[in-house]
Predict the structure.
Amino acid sequence: MPDQNTHLKTVEQRLLWLSHWMIHNANHIRPKADGIKVGGHQASSASMVSLMTALYFSVLKPEDRIAVKPHASPIFHAMQYLMGNMTREKMENFRGFGGVQSYPSRTKDIDDVDFSTGSVGLGVAITSFASMIQDYVQAKTWGKEVPLGRMIALMGDAELDEGNIYECLQEGWKNDLRNTWWVIDYNRQSLDGIVREGLFERAEKVFDAFGWDVVRVKYGVLQRAAFAEPGGDKLQTWIDNCPNQLYSALTYMGGAVWRKHLMDDLGDQGDVTALLDARSDAELAALMENLGGNCVETMAETFAAIDHDRPVCFLAYTIKGWGTPIAGHKDNHGGLMTKNQMAAWQSDMGVPEGAEWDALATVNDAVSFQTYLDQVPFFAKGARRFTDQTLPVPDIAIASDREISTQMGFGKILDDLSKGDSALADRIVTTSPDVTGTTNLGPWVNRRKLFARTAQADTFKDHKIPSTAKWEFAPEGQHIELGIAEMNLMLLLGAAGLSHSLFGKRLIPIGTVYDPFVSRGLDALNYACYQDARFMLVGTPSGVTLAPEGGAHQSIASPLIGMSQDGLAAFEPAFVDELAVIMEWAFDYMQRSGDGDPDERTWLRDETGGSVYLRLTTNPIEQPGKRVDDDFRQGAIDGAYWLRKPGPNCSIVIAYQGAVAPEAIAAAGMIGEYRRDVGVLAVTSADRLNAGWTAAQRDRTRGNEKATSHVEALMGKLPSSCTVVTVIDGHPATLSWLGAVAGHKTIPHGVEHFGQTGSIDDLYRHFRIDRHSIAESVSELTVGDRSPSATLRTLLPS
């Protein structure tokens, strides 16, 4: 009966072949209409094969979660194919439409991907935040039964260049990170060449500074055995001192060159010569390429030796392209084996012609090997995607004070939820990058506390020092405070937003950030949405409405980010009753996971659910009073409603979004003095309006003539001669497309350039988003009666 190491070696060789054949098939066998290289990263996959074999087939348990290095995707899918979790059809269609994805994807692949990867560094960092969320869940009475797993990242050494790695390390240290492993594929080659010498020393110091254990895995079993022979110490010293570029070049050139170079460097020293002469060229090449990370036995032993929950960084030395004809070549990152190289390698691997896709093609005892595979713990329970019950959403309402900002309304809504005992409130977890108080999360945090695995008292409170912030840390706390790093915020939201799938316990994550700094965390926000994480992101304060703060804190592009970001429904309410309606809907929307059939009322695929982005403001404005009609409530959710319905002879419609509502309403009153039937369209979500419009058009092209979106229903009855004036405290392109819906002339108002300090009135006038500028545009740029002031100006001498 083969032992564990024999089975692991068989698995390793099977994964190496299947992954490389999949890539070869996509590039050299499958027909290509355009002749463009498909790619697939054969060399990067090869350097990870021993690491992944040892990890998945000897160490992991079902509760462990792994982020696979993007360029090792072929190894992951080959592994799932070997285990019967991936189809040959999808493997043959690697990087094709509907086939195995280039990089592991939770939403596009079918084979139990834990974390999507692709944007380097982010898949690494999210494992730390997933571990923090796992601790958060298990600390609650409703999550105590969740087994603690290890959150593991398989990463390339070049990912150490990514800044978010170091932001994440610091946040992990602050939060007493545990149960996290990062396995670095230290092949010392990146996209453009060989990495700098001594990188490992600096990496070790960084991880040590943040409380991680560092395990350097440099030598495989063959090398360690050779070092024990006479002359072995000299060989080890040579290996330790060999520059990365030289080691790679010698690897590529092979055993005979290895022998000559070693003899030239070390000389005829008797014991060293005997050590080398005892091995053929092929055996010598195998010895020199037997680095720790390319030795499945060594990696299995190393992983199994960890008997604590402290975070661990494994620095595993590997050869890029290990085991293949392109091993070590500095161009192998994007390189592929030629047809001739593959034919020779196939013979070396012992794969019969015609059996290339046979999962067990080279296995001598297939029955015994299959029995072994069936008993591997990680795969024993099948797919590890969980779900959790949908939490009922309580009624959400807020008193419409005569003047209140949407940011303050957001804080009041959360404070009201914190006072109640709803299941939804118990699952809310808030977080913020050092702007908790200034984004109105304070009342929620005061009642629901901050999270820490061990209780920490509020010293100010204990000493009876007055403070509005009662910062008490406790395991039952429901706020996770972060440092000033927006990437960390988005990654934590992503991890928390996957809690129902990763751990079987649903969370309702809410993160607040100053709106201009949404852009600072945009890569991680996109990454979280790509994973289909579910969360609420609140960007506040926003726009030039944050007047005294100046241009560095005044957001312009964020409404367009909200429109363009897939998986994120973006809203910008002007009034707090709109906000209450939207948040009540959002708490349900974040929990949906339906089939995605479009709603024939809006043509939005609301049943799929998603995340939500709220763009709010600190500017208190007069509220419209209590409104309960269905048109208002549904319109606020669908993206727009008529605040002032246009009359039959309407020639002007003012469409606004967000904080500029008072300016739009006042302008409508001014224009109404000389134009009849002026309409005012309150837009709460340009994102949802636009998405519904394009979806309805697609369905009409497919033959459904009745497909009409919400915005088409709103705009379709306006006279063709009507002009639409749009206004937003943000980029004007957010709303300027509205005229295209039914062919109306459009005059857009918005902010296109950096702001500056000043009063709100000053900046609104400067950027022409004030009531007078709106009225002036109507008077000067449209056909019809002009305002009395404009008429007077034309009569005065210049």
Notes: Residues 219 and 292 are 4 Å apart (CA to CA). Residues 792-798 have pLDDT under 50 and may be disordered. The two ends are 103 Å apart (CA to CA).
